[in-house]
Task: structure prediction
Amino acid sequence: MPAPRNLARILGILPALLAIGAIAAAPLQEPEEEEQYTIKEVMKLAHAKDGLLKKVATGKATDEEKQQLLVCYQSMAKNSPPRGEQESWDERTKQLVAAAEAAVKGEEDAADLLLTATDCKSCHDVHK
Ligand code: HEC
Result:
């Protein structure tokens, strides 16, 4: 009866299979995690007095800083707010991402889009 022997062999390679699975899955997740900021981190990076938003909206940002602002807002879009409806949050953060994308592409209305989308009080009243 070869059955018990086969079973032992299958059980023997199981850890190896699991390890291969873990290695295969890891590279897919890592870059995303590196780019993820919490909402609070974005507020500090982007919305502080001399933060990214002001630089980008006044045309003083480098291409790299524009890209950073986009990553910040993409991170916000992936998060959930401490308060308020998810649907409202999705709509607001979609506008933030679109405005930052316009800045990265150098579109003329980028500053206007950014200033409209980043109305601090209107978002804080609902979601903070
Ligand atoms: C799209 C929504 C949204 C917009 C626009 C927004 N904020 Fe916020 N902000 C939040 C949320 C949500 C929190 C609370 C985060 C938490 O408690 O996790 C917050 C928190 C903060 C905090 C506190 C951070 C901390 O460490 O507790 C500061 C400061 C801040 N925002 C500044 C600003 C400024 C300045 C602007 C405008 C230039 C702005 N925010 C625009 C959503 C927004």
